[in-house]
Amino acid sequence: MNTDFKKTLPFMMYRLVARLVAEANEEYGRYGLTIHGVRLLIVTRQNPGIRVGELAEITCVEGSTLSHMLARLERDGLLVRERSNSDNRSVAISLTPRGSRVADAVGKISLAHQDMMLDGLSAVEIKQLRSLVEKMGSNIDRIPAAKAASSQRWAMKRKLA
Predict the structure, then answer these.
(1) Average pLDDT of span 61-81
(2) Which of 1, 8, 21, 33 is 20 to 30 A from residue 89's alpha carbon, by CA?
(3) CA distances for 103 relative to 20, 64, 69, 157, angstroms
(4) Which has more pLDDT, 128 or 155?
C-alpha cells in the first residue's frame, strides 16, 4: 500500500481540528474552559432548557463524560440542571446569567476562529465546503445501517448453508 496517509482526508481533517482546538483552548482557558465546555455552553445558549440527551447528541459528548462536564459547569456557576416536572428522569439544562455572558464571549471567539479558517475562501467556496461536509456526515451516518444490513445478510447466509 503506497497511500500517503498525510494526504488522506480523515488525517488532514484531524490535523486541522487538532490545531484549531489547541489554539481555541488557549483562548478559552481565560474563561476556565476548554473547547468541549464551550460547545456545551453555546448549544445551551441557543437552546434554553435543552434536555441532557439532546445536548449529548448535538455535541457528540458521551453520557458519563457529559455528566461530569455539566457538574463542573454547574459548580462554576455557568448553568443549572433541573429535573422535569412531567418526567423525573429528564433533566433540562439552562444557563445562568453569568453562563449566558460567558457563552456570548466564547461564541465570539469561536466565530473569529471560523473566520480565520475560512479566510481567502469565496462565498461560493464556503457554501460548497459546507455542502460537502454535510454530505460526508450523511455518508458516515449510513455506516451503522450498512454494518447492520451486512450482518443480517451474513446471518441469513449461515442459516441457508
Answers:
(1) 94
(2) 33
(3) 19, 23, 15, 54
(4) 128
| Cα(59)–Cα(93) distance, integer angstroms | 14
Q: Which CATH class for the 5-119 domain?
A: mainly alpha
Give the whole-angstrom CA distance, residue 27 versus residue 127: 28
Domain limits, the chain = 5-119, 121-161
Place of cell 498525510: 6
- Residue in 105, 60, 51 with CA at minimum distance from that of residue 78: 105
In the block, cell 480523515 appears at: 10
Contact (Cβ atoms closer than 8 angstroms) between residue 55 and residue 75: no
Q: The whole model's pTM is what?
A: 0.80
Beta partners for residue 51, in sequence order: 92
